[in-house]
TrEMBL record:
It comes from Angiostrongylus cantonensis. It is found in: Membrane. Pfam families: Ank_2, Ion_trans, TRP_2. It is a multi-pass membrane protein. Residues 151-213 form the Transient receptor ion channel domain. Keywords: ANK repeat, Ion channel, Ion transport, Membrane, Repeat, Transmembrane, Transmembrane helix, Transport. GO terms for cellular component: cation channel complex; plasma membrane. InterPro entries: Ankyrin_rpt (IPR002110), Ankyrin_rpt-contain_sf (IPR036770), Ion_trans_dom (IPR005821), TRP_dom (IPR013555), TRPC_channel (IPR002153). The chain crosses the membrane at residues 299-323, 335-356, 384-402. One of its GO terms (molecular function) is store-operated calcium channel activity. One of its GO terms (biological process) is regulation of cytosolic calcium ion concentration. This is ANK_REP_REGION domain-containing protein. It comes from the Eukaryota.
Length: 461
């Protein structure tokens, strides 16, 4: 009879919580010996969860004052996006010394609807709830970055042996939290750069864990969308420079040092670079130093300026080598001027190659069968001024590739197929020069030996 009376009181207690009857709940709580405050209904909900679902803050405070077990109630509050309830539960957990930055006071049992790896800050990040995320970050809570998928530490090996599916799902849950825009803005030092790196990492994981490829790719696209949305919030060039540099000291003479741009271009994410704000900034940097309003000038002025810079590239290059800090050298460093100088230089190089090929054709025509006696004398001729100029140009091209290899490193250099093409082209140039040198040596050395013998014979006479 006593057991039946206790169950009746529990049903009455849960029903009063459902209806929000504070008075009845207080009366039932006063009879503590006959009531289990942690009782649950057929759905597995205790009174605290019912109050959270009904957003009854007064009921939540009453139940917490009577020391009801919170278990995973804070997760339910976050799931309902009831920020006030979350704050009240956190204060209660801190008061009874159950809150810590690791699990944030959550106790997951076999009846819980959440997985053991789920923490309040991770769930808040899944919901992208800014207020809840900030609350837990202020409490020194963090979202731990998952170990590398190939990690062989004791924890990873044990988790993989026990349940590989659970390990994969926990990794996805962590990355889903890390890609939360609110969490990135609140915790990352450079939000855009962090989003780029995270997007690249998720794309790499999508090729390793093929079973979850669609989920990883979705998270990767989420990071890319975040970076583009950040650009939509920019109101001026100054703000854009600060965002890309992530510094409050962004100034004109440092405009070319955009780490976010470099990572994004390497990452092949077109949406960010193609954004109108970025395109306008890039255009301003590209035409910098050519006078105000160069892009709006008429076509004749542009053509004359381009022709003048292209024809004067030898003077600009020599000035840069002699006085690299002079005004002319600073003008030469401008991106568009540098592009015009390189283009003009390469055009001259192609003309030299054309001239050298025409000379070879004439030699081939001269050395036919009727000129067979002179054929040996024509083999291995000394280099002409045109060929000497070509050798100088080739050495310059090789020096450019060496500088690029030194600045970017072997791995990044080899990842760019254009660099591989340049390496092959320069190798062919060097091979041609080497073969010409060998031919010259093989022809001239015997003739020099014969000449010496003739001179010695003449001297003996």
């Amino acid at each position: 009879l006593h057991l039946g009376d206790s169950r009746f009181r529990e049903k009455q207690f849960l029903l009063s919580c459902e209806r929000g009857d504070i008075g009845s709940v207080k009366k039932l709580l006063a009879i503590k010996d006959c009531l289990n405050i942690n009782c649950v209904d057929p759905l597995g909900r205790n009174a605290l969860l019912i109050a959270i679902e009904n957003e009854n803050i007064e009921m939540i405070e009453l139940l917490l004052d009577n020391n009801i077990e919170t278990v995973d109630a804070i997760l339910y509050a976050i799931g309902e996006e009831n920020v006030e309830a979350v704050e009240i539960i956190v204060e209660h957990l801190e008061k009874i010394d159950k809150f810590n930055p690791e699990n944030q006071g959550v106790e997951i049992n076999e009846h819980s609807a959440f997985t053991p790896d789920m923490t309040p800050i991770i769930l808040a990040a899944h919901k992208d709830n800014y207020e809840c995320i900030k609350l837990f970050l202020d409490k020194k809570s963090t979202v731990p970055h998952p170990h590398d998928i190939h990690c062989s530490c004791h924890d990873c090996v044990t988790a993989r042996e026990e349940d590989s599916l659970r390990l994969s799902r926990s990794r996805i849950n962590a990355y889903r939290a890390l890609t939360s825009p609110s969490l990135i803005c609140l915790s990352a030092k450079d939000p855009i750069l962090y989003a780029f790196e995270l997007s690249w990492e998720l794309r790499r994981l999508s090729y390793i864990e093929n079973e979850f490829r669609s989920e990883y790719q979705e998270l990767s696209q989420k990071c890319q969308k975040f970076s583009v949305n950040m650009l939509d919030q920019i109101r001026g060039s100054k703000e854009l420079e600060i965002v890309l540099n992530h510094t409050t000291n962004a100034c004109v003479h440092r405009r070319e040092n955009f780490s976010s741009f470099a990572i994004q271009i390497l990452d092949n994410t077109i949406q960010f670079v193609a954004h109108p704000n970025c395109q306008q900034l890039l255009a301003g940097i590209w035409y910098e130093g050519l006078g105000p309003g160069f892009r709006n000038r008429n076509i004749i002025y542009k053509c004359l300026l381009i022709a003048a810079v292209g024809l004067s590239f030898p003077i600009l290059s020599i000035s840069y080598l002699i006085a690299p800090k002079s005004a002319v050298a600073r003008f030469t460093r401008r991106p568009f001027v540098k592009f015009l100088s390189h283009s003009a230089s390469y055009m001259v190089f192609l003309v030299l190659l054309l001239m050298a090929s025409q000379r070879n054709d004439k030699i081939d025509n001269m050395f036919r069968e009727e000129n067979a006696p002179d054929r040996k004398e024509g083999r291995g001729p000394p280099p002409t001024p045109v060929e000497v100029a070509i050798i100088i140009w080739v050495l310059g091209l090789i020096w450019v590739e060496i500088k690029q290899l030194w600045n970017s490193g072997l791995y990044d250099y080899c990842n760019n197929l254009w660099n591989i093409l340049d390496f092959i082209t320069n190798s062919l140039y060097l091979s041609t020069v080497a073969l010409r040198a060998v031919a010259y040596y093989q022809v001239r050395v015997p003739y020099a030996h014969i000449r010496i013998v003739e001179l010695l014979s003449y001297a003996s006479l």
